[in-house]
Amino acid sequence: MAIKRPRNLLALVAALCSLLLLQAQPAFAVTYQKYKHFASGFYLFSTVPSGSTTGVVSKQNIGNPVINFEWYKVARGSYFNIVNHGTGQCLDSNANKRVYTNPCGATNTYQQWSISYSHGVYDEYKNRATGLCLDGSGTTISVYTNPCATGNTYQWWDAA
């Protein structure tokens, strides 16, 4: 009888450990997207410089590390955060039209976006706090925000 109890105890511990490991897995599948800029053909990219907490956002051709080109959305009511897979930070903006990434804050409206207009596969992304749309130059790697204009192809992004 004394021998069976440790086996039963070990089986119970093993079962509990398995249950805990299963619960540690995400309860949903994350869809990673690359945001292609219509006017330049470049992709939205982010990296966090060493010693900084604020990430740099630019447009570039796909390169390495690929995960820095991948983003996913986290719903915030009728808005969403756009989170970089490589940095784990949220796309952020300010009233000075700057775009960057920062650690995500669930209530930070400068990190909340909505789709203001769709043009087939291309969408315009509007910042909740500033009311400005994600924008980029056609010839440089710069990313910034500007007043939304439905015909402005510099504000068109394909999340594929």
Give your account of this protein's structure.
With 160 residues, the chain is mainly beta. The chain has one domain (31-159): Trefoil (Trefoil (Acidic Fibroblast Growth Factor, subunit A)), CATH 2.80.10.50. 13% of the residues lie in helices and 38% in strands. It contains one helix and twelve strands. The protein has one helix at 4-24; strands at 35-37, 43-47, 55-60, 71-76, 79-84, 90-93, 99-102, 113-119, 122-127, 132-136, 143-147, 157-159. The strands form four sheets. It has a four-stranded antiparallel sheet, with no helix packed on it. It has a four-stranded antiparallel sheet with strand order 2-3-7-6, with no helix packed on it. A hairpin with a 6-residue loop joins strand 10 (132-136) and strand 11 (143-147). The longest helix is centred in the N-terminal third of the chain and has 21 residues, at 4-24.
The assigned structural class equals: mainly beta
Count of domain modules: 1
Question: What is the CA-based Rg, rounded?
Answer: 21 Å
Please give the order of strands in the largest beta sheet: 1-12-9-8
Residue windows where pLDDT falls under 50 for at least 5 positions: 16-27
How many separate helices? 1
Count of DSSP strands? 12
- Give the amount of beta strand, in percent: 35-45%
The percent of residues in helical segments reads 10-25%
Straight-line N-to-C gap: 61 Å
Write the element-wise H/E pattern from the N-terminal end onward. Answer: HEEEEEEEEEEEE
Biggest beta-sheet profile? 4 strands, antiparallel
**CATH class, anyone?**
Mainly Beta
Summarize the structure.
By secondary structure, the protein is mainly β.
